[in-house]
Hints:
single chain; about 65% helix
Amino acid sequence: MNPEERERVIVRTSIVGIVANVLLVAFKAVVGLAANSIAIVLDAVNNLTDALSSVITIIGAKLAGKKPDKDHPLGHGRYEYLSAMVIVAIVLYAGITSLVESIRKIIEPEVADYSIVTLVIVAAAVIVKIVLGRYVSAKGKQVDSGSLVASGKDALFDAAISTSVLAAALIFLATGISLEAYVGVIISIVIIKAGIDMLRETLDDILGHRPDPDLARGIKRTVCADPDVLGAYDLLLDSYGPDLTVGAVHVEVPDTMTAAEIDAMTRRLQAAVYAEHRIALATVGIYSHNTTDDDVAEMQSAITRRVMGHGGVLQMHGFFVDVEKRRVSFDIIIDFDVANRDELYCHISEEVKELYPDYDFNITLDRDLSD
């Protein structure tokens, strides 16, 4: 789906959400005030935040869809992350203020006055929210919009909240026990939790996080399928919005390859990765692999055994020996769970240097970027 069509789908779906939520707000607010029901009023406030979220989603989609320019050559896709942060702020504000009001109602209780019309409207709201939630979530997955998926999940949460309001009303009518304010507390906590979860996900997108393991393995399989590639390492993916992810990867190739052959291979890899995964490989780094010296192969085996014998070492790669200059280079990846990664790295470096004291070593402590 092209960016223009994706934007249209997001806008259309968000408008449907806005209309549905505004109608629910109007009905619930009137009914809640008439029945003196704090739970129904807070449910209306929750729907109002959903409507505002949809408005912000539209604004974010419009801004994210702007064409690249001189100052932003990679486009404006990250506006969607900023719009998600605004939505988080609205949700958290609504949840906190609702919680304060609900606690006040527990301290100073007021009796609600339910009617058949009230119950019918709340029940209808449950059905509307279930249908709306499924629709918005499906559209969000279709166009890979985190904001829409989050809105869809929120709508399904709202259905559960409205169900609890309806249950509280039925319990009051049957027993005379008022759970209004307590249901309001539960609603508030659910809203706050949803806001915190959205905040965590959005911060992950802004800060950068490990790529999806299946995607990372798929990209590496695509790269390693090239006949000239001996191994793929250091995969790095950087998202500039849902429509653009830029990647970098190191590949190990025979030391007999010419610059022209490497250039042709690089272009093949970029084309293959984009065709299969829609990832733009901006950089293909090169590790040269010794192929003609048996002594170097024996040295690599000995060093690999020593390095990988340490717990917490996940991988060793990029091994190359410059025989004339007597210089050895390779990278090691140490698990982030190791308490002192730098200390282990220094210990390994000293061990390897003692193993081959006549060589200079250039050992890089690499990051565990992907599975």
